[in-house]
Design a protein that fits this description.
This protein is an alpha/beta fold. The chain has two helices and six strands; from the N terminus they run ββαβββαβ. Helix content is 27%, strand content 32%. The chain has a four-stranded mixed sheet with strand order 1-3-2-6, sandwiched between helices.
């Protein structure tokens, strides 16, 4: 048996809550844990003291799945093809950050927040 890979395009989703105090603000970018969603992470980001002074972006993992009946979440990767998934996720996050640099007035400060239950 031979195993092959082919590159394809997959759409990713991110949520943005702009700074409540200034057009130009630093960026707080968050990554949810296994089985969670961008909404879950955005809620955590916005609860951080002082977050209202930041642009808050929650980036959702590219691999959705059902956690239970009618409840979905997402995963960043599994151990299978790990190195390949890491490269794909880095390209995805870089693309989101590039889009935010074009659409927002950002300061030079960028903070990443990661969470896993």
């Amino acid at each position: 048996m031979q195993s092959f890979f082919i590159q394809t395009t997959v759409s990713g989703r991110y949520l943005l809550r702009s700074s409540l105090h200034s057009v130009q603000a630093p960026l707080l970018a968050g990554f949810h844990g296994y089985g969670q969603t961008a909404e879950d992470e955005l809620q955590l980001l916005c609860a951080i003291p002082g977050a209202e002074y930041w642009h808050c972006c929650s980036i959702e993992a590219l691999h959705p799945f059902y956690i239970s009946r009618n409840v979905s979440g997402a995963s960043w990767m599994t151990s299978r093809q790990r190195e390949q998934r890491i490269e794909e996720n880095v390209r995805y996050v870089d693309t989101v950050l590039d889009a935010l640099n074009v659409s927002l007035s950002l300061t030079d400060t960028l903070v990443f927040h990661g969470f896993s239950p």
